[in-house]
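hi support,

uploading two proteins for the ticket. first:
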Amino acid sequence: VKPTPFCILDEIDATLDEANVHRFADLLSEFSKDLQLIIVTHRRGTMELADAIYGVTMEEMGVSKLLSLQLKKQAG
């Protein structure tokens, strides 16, 4: 049996306090070694573990624009 190739989590960290957001992010980092994670979040602590961040904004009424940011991890 093959494991699932990815997992989608939608604002799963919304009710956590800051300390637990960081603990949760550490747990997600462990999972991400074997699994691709797609996470919807507004929490900085969760975003900090990302390799890439995507956002959607509306520059003019009714027109959505997709933004992306590739993050580089620091060694060490």
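and the second one:
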Amino acid sequence: DVLLDVLQADDDNGDITDGTPNGDAIVEGFAIHGITLITNAIFNHTPLEASLAEEEIEVSATIILDFPFINYLDEGQMYYRINGETEWQVAGMENTLGNTYTATIPAQPEGTVIAYYLGLVDTFGNSSSTKPIAANEADPNIPYYILVGLEDIMIHDNDFSEPWGQWDTGVSGDNNTTGDWEVNIPIGSFSDDGSNVAPDTQTTPDGELCFLTGQSPSPTGGIGENDVDGGHTTLRSPVIDLTGMTTPVFTYERWYANAPPTGANPGTDWWQVQLSDDGGNSWVYLENSRTQDISWRRNAFRVEDHVDVTNEFRIQMIASDSTFIGQNLDGGSLIEAAMDDFILWDLGIPDNINEVDATDAFQLYPNPADEQVTIAFDLMAANRVTIEITDMTGRTVFEENYGELFVGNHRKTIPTKSLPAGMYIMSARMGSNVLTQSFQVID
């Protein structure tokens, strides 16, 4: 309202939509402080996380802007980039129905990862209401991600599945005094206004646990009682074998706070994520940012866009509290981080397989397997059963027809010692149905 009043006072013809004598300078000055003619827009969007291959992708949002501010909305825009691209492509959002605006991403092949964010532009060319917040900044927040034609292969969630084993919740060289990474139930910490600083939720359905930097003593405790202090703390994955996969993609949910309300030295400390293809001897950055997002956010990346696909992949996440003697609180900040649901994706199972949901139909263990793998399944009616194992290229490495089996519980154990380490798909053909599940063989 103040910006509008100033422009109206500067106007010389009763119509500020065609500009005012000093309009550009006025609008630019207000924009520096985050105020535009459309700052009060209600801009809602539900992130799109997955899409079918070779189909156009529609991204929609609702924009609610009261009169007279709606007159100063130029357009909604979607910014997107494909896989490892560094330049953003821009697509205008068309008003398709009521308050709904839609933009389209061209059809993409399977195995594509699309990053995107949304924003509004006023009639003076200023951007506002970016979603996710700060995704358009020089030190950007992570955007939204769409996975095209991919299926989840394995997940580490700390509750039900730890396929690659235990992660390191601290490594040589860490020097923080409090706030070590740990696996625990998030209790949360809260600012005076009731907003979260540390998480009080995790992201696994029906789960309880996540990785976090020091469990809060209690929901009513101080917001800095067990945050990261005096240095950095590292969460490092085990070595993961990705050989034999077609297009390995990882996603993870992360939480990072370095500038909460009342926090000292806001925005001065780093959240870093690094990748390695040689077991941790060398690292490249995936994230290296001082921009917080105090919420659970999903990041996604294709491995091949950053490092080679090898049998020695690792990832590590570092939360830091820098020390600068002589500054306010010696440079200390309020730092909280968390991570959950680390998921490996790859191209889906071929369309010519009649696939049904195998989650409750059979169990496959151990996963990963070394010497052997066992499949346990129930038959509701007598049926012919054939079990086949294929590698990620579709080549059959094991197949056996067990003939007609009776109603009830069955277990079949298959040796895997002779199989090269890597990812495989087990298919259990039971009559006209095929139950499938991926698993990993390790040395």
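thanks. also noticed: The radius of gyration is 26 Å.
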